[in-house]
Every structure is written in C-alpha cells, then in structure tokens.
Amino acid sequence: MRGGVGDGRPRLQTAKHVAETIFRLSGTTNGRLAVEGFRQLEQRTGTELADLATDREDDRITLEQVRIQPRKVITSPEWSGIESRTRRYSPFTVNVDREVPWRTLTGRQHFYLDHDWMLEFGEGLPGFVIPPLNWGALGELLPSVSPFSR
User: Fold this and answer.
1) For a disulfide at 31, which of 24, 44, 59, 60, Cβ 3.0-4.6 Å?
2) DSSP letter string over 25-79?
3) Residue 127 host element (H or E)
4) Residue 135: pLDDT band by 50, 70, 90 thresholds?
C-alpha cells in the first residue's frame, strides 16, 4: 500500500494478494527467509543449520510458478523436515540428523507428560480414545449377521 495507515504494508484486497503475501513471507518459498531463519535457530541450538538452505537462498517460489507446475519447497526452520534436490521430505529429519531439540516443552520427544497442568486434567499419557459407538443411531446400517460371529 502507498500512503495512509497501510503505507508500506502488503495490499490484501484479493485472494491472489493474500496468496502472494504468504509465498513471500514463508521460508519454504523464499530462500532468503529460510537461511535467515536457520541462522537464528543456529544461535539458539549451537548447531550449524544454514547450509540446509543456502543452495536455494536466491530462490523465490511464486503463485504463478505453482500454477504452471508444482515446485519442491525450500528446507525451512518452519518445518522439521529436510527436503533437497536429492532427498524427499521426511518429517523430523532436522531433529534426528542435526540433533535439533524437539518442539516440546522439554526439547525431547516424549509420550508421558508429567507437567503439572496436564496432570491436573488427570492425563499424563496423552492419547485419543474413540468414544463408544451409538448403536441405536446406526439403525438399518447394522448387518443382520456379523462377519465376526462365525
């Protein structure tokens, strides 16, 4: 925008404007931002990481390019996976290969959560429990003979 309250800010009047803004502000589509993000993460972790994106630092993926043909995203600190010209995206490879702490309160991968706020809810082992089926609501969908009764 030029002038007024929005001076210097992105113009978000159409869906295309919004999409282009997202592409420009994401490290997965803007190589310069990916490298900057990894350099900040290097300071926090003490692990060299910027090399994961430096070969694509000058790359910018735009909406128009994606409309023509899908593109490989740039490895970015926004995600936990590494993707390169020779490697397909796989989650948590930054954590495993580069020993970057996990994005949890403790920095470790864990299943049991002994945090006070979790225990207050009566749950230290998070999990999803499927609620029991409402057999009455199934009505005629119920098989007359169960395949498991034989």
Assistant:
1) 59
2) H-TTTBHHHHHHHHHHHHHHH-S--GGGTGGGTT-B--HHHHHHS--PPPP-TTS
3) none
4) low
